Amino acid sequence: MQKIFQTSFWTVALSVSCATVHAQQSSSAVLSEVCPLPAPLFKTPIQPIENLQPGAIGVRADRADIDSQSQVASFFGNVEVQFDQQQLRTQQAQIDQLSGNINASGATLFTDGYVQVSSENFRLNSGENRAFLSGAEYQLTETGAHGKADILSLSPQQVLLEGSTFTTCPSDSPVWQMSAQEISLNEDEEWGEAWHAKFELFGLPVLYLPYINFPVTDARKSGFLFPTFGSSQKNGFEVEVPYYFNIAPNMDATIAPRYMAERGTQIQAEFRTLSETGNGQYNVAYLEQDKSTDDNAARYLWRIEQNQRWGEHWRGYINGTFISDDDYLNDLGSDFAGRADAQLYRHAQLDYLNENWQVTMRAEDFELLGSYRSPYRTMPQIKSYYAANAGFDVDFALFAEMSHFQNQDLSQDTATRMHIEPQLSYHLEQPGYDWLAELSYAYTYYNQDADFENNRSENPSRSLPTFRWRGRVNLERNIDIKQRNYTHTLQPQIQYLYTPYRDQSGIGIYDSTLMQDDYQGLFRARRFSGLDRIADANQVTIGASSSLFDQQAKEIARVSFGQIYYFENSQTQLFDTSTETSENRSDLALETRFRINDNMFFNSSIQYNLELNSTRKSQTTLEYRLNEFNLVQLSHRTVTNLLENDVEQVGMLGVVELSPRWQLASNWYYDLQNSRTNDAFIALQYSDCCWAMRISGYRRINRNLEINTGVPDLGAPEFDNGISVQFIIKGLGSDNRSLLDMLEQSLFGYRHPFHLSN
User: Fold this and answer.
1) Where does the signal sequence lie (predicted)?
2) Cystine design at 102: which of 54, 124, 220, 484 (Cβ 3.0–4.6 Å)?
3) Which among 45, 71, 46 is positioned nearest to 58, based on CA atoms?
């Protein structure tokens, strides 16, 4: 039986039926195995009433009484009310067709698509367009956030809770919840506000806030992030409380006061911006008075990074980190530089690129941490590179540069360098082989102050031709190993390099240093970076690389080895004779890579002196990596004749997921030469759907660069110990760094086994 009533306000469609309503599973009922949403309050959705017009109220009930005089309709038994996107389920309801009000007594269920509410009664005030429910339990449909409220009122865009609680924990006994005198949830802006709020953890109030705003979804929202607590010998008790500013969709900022009992309060700030043509990040940290220093000195760090492009051809980039003193990183740490870093590199550049030209204008600066020779700034440097085909498969290139250098400590110590270098090259490439022939002529002129070094000339110049020939053979065959097909490649190569000797002792050292002599470095055309020293060479380099590929073209193994044979020893040096070549051949460079399986890798790089039968440098790593939550890396490295002290170190780094809720991270680096631990770190994290807690501790050598003139005191080192505790409350903002990221704060961060030389 169906009855339809009409008034001048709306149409009430009434259906009285005793039919069984069958449950339907909605997509929101599909639960996550790890963090399930709470069970929806509406176990079975209300079946839509057909042909219900917008603005009309549709009702199903077992029984209905209609008072034609008062225009009040009363419904009893399994009452289901629908109006627009809102649904009400109760046992008894009254609808006043004149005022538009709805009243329901007894247990009720209500939803408007945004929130589901179970309450003791329900009242809709049509004039205010607001519904009131008392004794309510509510649940946000999309996020599963839920709680209780003495009185809950609803408008089309707002949920207002009085005497209420809020939590994102799915359980009925949440680990954390916020109870407040009043909570307001805004559907459009995806955030909430609370007044006179108490934060409760494990049922105990731990924090009172007169006002707080918080996100109710994953959307960004201004507000406090949860603090970090720690303690160390150098800083004492620490607490850091970040506040996040959501300025615009493409712009945000964070301010994080950091209190250190032994030093004082440090203010840290970060600003980020993003646009269609670039992005930038700016950071500053300032400690006005460091109580742990004798003079209560101010300590600071500031950093800028900006990447920008203008049109098709122009690019710009600036990146720099600046600190108040050499020991800042060792004492206070930073996300932008490691505690073991020996220098800070800063530069800004503007690039123009087209099909043939690349022009770069750059300013760069090195800050060496410790008592070392004062470096030079490049202010500015203009580089130009032109490349084109000259015909007959011959390529022509022209490199030009003008650089102005200034000593960081002595501003009068300056130099200007002009360099031009044309080059002709012929490259022939075939499937079975390829070879390259290059002929270049470099002319360099200096205008430098000779007063600062006795052996420095005022206007030296240098002309150097260079000839280079390199050939490679590419051999390939198919082989079977344990009934599996593989592709085996062999690539022997040879290079001849000739550059005559020129006396360059009258030229200052501004941007040159000795480069790494690994396998790839053996085939470079120059031994030194920069242009202040171009080493003489009359040598041949011989090497070979062999690889094994599976049927999916994955490299399973690689072995590479090479060596330079000198027809004449190079006489060109930097500051001392250590960069001269005094033997008839270089160290043997050997590199091996093995993919043991899809998750395990072995990598080794060795430079071995055949004359002395000793290893100059070696780096070896064995890594098992399932994902960023499960990896273990074992490493060993050796460096001899480094500041008259050999280095031999073994290390272990690991991140392991003990269970879905427990993770462990640790590293340990041991100095075999001095029989001591240089760096150790361990962190344990518990995480579930509601909260997480990290407990970490470290012990590392205290570098004290300013006290130890740049080198740690090897005889009686000083160590720094510390612990840290961090709570992460999910649903109110959190620290999203993984445990692997936390290991980067130690002296020796994680390195991918394929990039040990980074």
Assistant:
1) 1-23
2) 124
3) 46
Find where tokens 């030469």 sit: 673
Name, of 329-333, 420-424, 660-664, the range with top average pLDDT. Answer: 420-424
Question: Is 647 part of any domain?
Answer: yes
Is pLDDT larger for residue 190 or for residue 289?
Answer: 289
Examine the domain organization and report whether 678 and 585 are in the same domain. no
Q: Whats the size of the chain, residue-wise?
A: 758
Measured distance CA(104)–CA(126) in Å, rounded: 14
Q: Which residue has the higher pLDDT, 570 or 472?
A: 472
Q: Indicate if the pLDDT at residue 46 is higher than 80.
A: no
Torsion angle of C-alpha atoms 443, 447, 449, 455, degrees rounded to 10: 20
Residue 261 lies in a domain: no
Q: How far apart are the first and last CA of the chain?
A: 80
Amino acid at 3: K
Run of H or E residues at 244: strand 243-248
Same-domain status, 455 and 582:
yes
Query: Could you tell me the two tokens for 72?
Result: 């009040």
Q: Tokens 């970060």: give the residue.
A: 270
- Mean pLDDT computed over every residue of the chain: 83
Query: By residue range, what is the domain housing residue 523?
Result: 384-595
Structure tokens belonging to residue 637: 């490295």
Gyration radius of the chain over CA positions: 36
Neighbours of 560 (CB within 10 A): 20
Q: Is residue 77 part of a domain?
A: yes
> What's the domain count of the chain?
3
